[in-house]
Amino acid sequence: MTYRARILTVALCGVLAAACxxxxxxxxxxxxxxxxxxxxxxxxxxHADALNKAAAxxxxxxxxxxxxxxxxxxxxxxxxxxxxxxxxxxxxxLEVHAGGEDREMGASGLLSDLSADVGAEWLxxxxxxxxxxxxxxxxVIDRAAADSPFKQVxxxxxFSVPFTAGAFGIVFANKEKLAAAGLSPDTPPKTxxxxxxxxxxxxxxEPDAGGLSLGLKVSQTGFNWVYQPLAHSYLGRDRxxxxxxxxxxxxxxxxxGVKTLELYGQLTPYWMPSSTTxxxxxxxxxxxxxxxxxxxxxTFTLAFLAQNGMSPDKVLAFPIPPSAGGQQKEIAMAPLALxxxxxxxTTENREAAIKWIDFATSAKGxxxxxxxSLDLPxxxxxxxxxxLVGPDLAALQKYFTGTPESTYDAADNTFFPPDYxxxxxxxxxxxxxxxxxxxxxxxxxxxxxxxxxxxxxSE
Amino acid sequence: xxTQHVAGRRRPPGRWRAALTGWAFVFPAVALFAVMGxxxxxxxxxxxxxxxxxFTPNWIWVGFDNYLDLLYADPSLAPPLxxxxxxxxxxxxLVPLLTVAISLPLAVxxxxxxxxxxxxxxxxxxPYVTSGIAVYxxxxxILEPDGAINLLLRSLGxxxxxxxxGFLGNPSTALPTLIVVLxxxxxxxxxxxxxxxxxxxxxxxxxxxxxxxxxxxxxxxRITWPLLTPLTAGIVLLGxxxxxxxxxxxxxxxxxxxxxxxDVLGLQSYRLAFFKGLAxxxxxxxxxGWLLFAGxxxxxxxxARLLRRVR
Lengths: 459, 311
Description:
Chain A contains 19 helices and 13 strands. The longest helix of chain A is centred in the N-terminal third of the chain and has 31 residues. A two-stranded antiparallel sheet of chain B has the order 1-2.
């Protein structure tokens, strides 16, 4: 070996030794920090900011720091979780869509079972209709397709704790446009017919900017947010659920189905121009910009409108009103868990992660998040709700309570086919209204065909 | 003789070192291709025979079921796929045809102009340079009910041609409009290819034809077109490939709407992969991707055969 080669060898050994020694140090630090530092991913930017505020308080209380990162939009979030699951790089906590995504991820081995950690006291903090959102009940397992990972899960497993809640099918009206059309800006229409009359008045006043906006580019919004609450109130729960049944004798093509589709079709003259080319956010923005007089969304829409410059006090909000000729004369929307928090199965900080979820779903933590995001928490804030989320959003909560018969529960999917694909009925509804390519009877037959195929496919 | 042959192939030590150095330079590219190319292609192909939601540790092997479901077996999957295939077919035929019909005469004109040639070429090439997601958003604004096109039509007294729901909101104009935008974005590169092709044609051919009394139309038909056939085949093939696989424009501008009227196969594959909740449809999505690949391969082979015959 030459002198130069010897020098190089010694230098290489030195570099290797240094690399080994510096490599060991962070590991030691990592184990020391275990339980004191958490990573969390969410798919909502507004939640990330609010959660980071809550995390600051959490650190003061416990010394545990939490860094919350938003990964948006939804498909990017899903892809990131998929790849992180493959590479073993999942964070400690995930905020996911409740009542579906949480169960799928849990059953696939990504989320850990929290049933032993989340006791009755914890669950009782939550709005009653949200409590079972992350639970794998025997009914959920039984309904799953034969090859679903649900079949491998033990009944009673809890994969997540509900975090935010709300309801779809909330109509927002521009008070200024109502007043300009000679309508009361503070009195919501009591019936579907009154709602149509109000739409007619605003559209006559402003033909291009007095209609109804809804992001029909995401075609299922019309079916999920308008048609279903309307049909539920018109037919009552049992006849409404019969529309979707396997081999439905009382399907969408039946007199019940056609009548409800006729009611939905009455919206046709009042859609905002180009509603079919707007996604949900774009439709909300169009409403905030005064391009429509009415907008359909959910309880979460109010915060988005505020972010886009429309003050909540200029908006009148009410649920999709029931038809005067229907079974239910009033309508209530059961709040469903929209997002929930889960602890990943690979976390090394499980205890700290559970403490963080406990805090985020406590009245204190949820209050911080609610006031920062203007989103309704799944935690019952009681009398503090108005001061935390504002009087307008809190006022929407009055539509959450009603009789079991009159309450529309969007989380109840027990009567859908197992592999329910909401885009297909959504497209069919768009062809009915606003496109007018189908009559209500034709749309009913098409929907029966779609649901029949889904049932057959799930066999 | 065999011994001589082997001895002849034996390399001296210096040449071994040179060979090794060569391999060392090639190795990173080969390794990268092996991981990013061969592995992903193999993994994708395997996935098309499985059911997986992207999260479970194991795949469920289903053989050819995903392919059969897409083609006919699944009553919920196959009919919308056939509709999307019909839309894709229209795009596949019309985009390359219109691209050639516009870009060839444009290239001939650009090739013949003497003044402002560079400026004009830059102007016609702009759509290609600026093409992308942002341009599709810009097109959406132009095509809205109160967008520039409706405004222009109304100001020209052609209000009856304006679309009150916007060009993308009307089922009868949505797909044709998307085809026009696709053609708009593919004409520049086709024109550039034709321009390079035109410059390789011997001017003596044109001169001789002119002396024989050929009109410009006959020059184009009898000389330019036959000599540019290989280029035309390439442009058509590129157009077909883009129409088969491309889905960004459909995703951004219509998301398959209104009412599913602009649904295409690429968009279906994307939806199956990412927008089916967390259903185990990644395998079906992959199978659809492979069906599209098979379609593209068949068209390439047909194109190659056609080219050989023309030559």
